[in-house]
Design a protein that fits this description.
The chain is mainly alpha-helical. It folds into two domains: 150 residues, Ferritin; 150 residues, no CATH class. 77% of the residues lie in helices and 1% in strands. The protein contains eleven helices and two strands. Strands 1-2 form a two-stranded parallel sheet. Helix 2 packs antiparallel against helix 4, helix 3 packs antiparallel against helix 5 and helix 6 crosses helix 8. It is elongated and about 95 Å long. 36% of the residues are buried.
């Protein structure tokens, strides 16, 4: 009974007739063409060359589907059984494009290659297991067709997305990543790390109480994160500036602001005041070094200038907090 329950709704590939195998191939080609067109739609605005590549790949899938339909009509008539990949146990699956968005150039190209190779591998293995000669031939033909699709994908990539175009698209994608995530996140990390220095260390040296200092740091970090996140999201909808989704930018800014403040607040969970303070100061300089590295790596700011801006500014704020706490 349990066996029937787990197997209900799906059939093994070995149980399919030749007509059902052909119908499965037809529906699979149709699904893959739809996926390629969705990729093209998602890439068209920013990566038109790659979009054209996927449009041509969808056209290839359409032509193979039509060939399979013609073959089905000759052998079995006009009535094609409704059977799809999700009806067959062990058959390869496809993720709908909305599950893998936002679409990236390299991601979609890799997924397209995997789609074609997966289909070819499946049909090849299925052909080895088939005992009927006609079924074996049909599965072998399908495996060869899918293998040719991989070559077609490579040829189409050379036609519509040569190396210089791919480099240009990769650079566009990198800039978009910086505008949407790195720039807002860096602003948040700088604000969280530097702006919370004064209140945390002022509270530490004024009270000498590590728990109270931690509470001040926690509230300052979370408050700054919420404020910075909403400010970033509300400041620009990204339509004209091209900086991307305000929600993504707001989350990046808010999270990094909070982490920047928590970095030197968490050491004050240690009961011993001087141990906690020394660790917190070390963490501060690690945070300032991380900010300097990000500025140099992604914003192309020279090392010396980045270090001067961040370390000197952070050190002044740190000193101000300590002096205020000792006053």
């Amino acid at each position: 009974m349990l066996h029937r329950f787990f197997l209900s709704g799906r059939r093994s590939f070995d149980s399919l007739s030749e007509q059902e195998i052909l119908a499965l191939a037809i529906s699979s080609e149709e699904d893959d063409a739809r996926i390629y067109r969705a990729y093209a739609d998602g890439l068209r605005d920013e990566f038109p060359a790659s979009a054209r590549m996927f449009e041509d790949m969808a056209a290839e899938e359409d032509s193979h589907r039509q060939m399979l339909i013609d073959l089905h009509k000759r052998r079995f008539g006009d009535s094609i059984p409704l059977i799809r990949r999700e009806h067959v146990r062990g058959y390869y699956e496809r993720k709908p494009d909305w599950l893998v968005r936002p679409l990236g150039v390299e991601k979609t190209r890799d997924m397209a290659e995997q789609m074609e190779m997966q289909a070819a591998r499946f049909y090849r293995e299925a052909a080895k297991r088939a005992s009927d000669a006609d079924t074996r031939k049909l599965l072998g033909d399908l495996a060869a067709a899918e293998a040719r699709h991989v070559s077609v994908a490579g040829a189409l990539e050379q036609k519509h997305a040569p190396e210089e175009v791919q480099d240009e698209e990769a650079e566009t994608e990198r800039k978009q990543f910086i505008l949407t995530y790195v720039q807002p996140g860096l602003a948040g990390l700088m604000d969280g790390s530097v702006s919370t220095l004064a209140p945390i260390f002022a509270a530490a040296f004024a009270t000498g109480d590590t728990w109270q200092t931690f509470l001040v740091g926690l509230s300052a970090s979370i408050g700054a994160g919420i404020s910075m996140g909403f400010t970033e999201a509300a400041s620009d909808d990204g339509v004209i500036s091209g900086r991307g989704s305000p929600v993504k930018r707001g989350i990046a800014t808010g999270v990094m602001t909070t982490l920047g403040g928590l970095g030197h607040a968490l050491p004050y969970l240690i009961p011993d005041f001087w141990t906690a303070t020394v660790i917190a100061i070390v963490v501060v300089f690690l945070e300032l070094w991380a900010i300097t590295w990000i500025q140099h790596r992604y914003m192309e700011t020279p090392w010396f200038r980045a270090a001067l801006q961040v370390v000197v500014g952070g050190s002044l704020v740190l000193a101000a907090g300590i002096l205020i706490g000792l006053a």
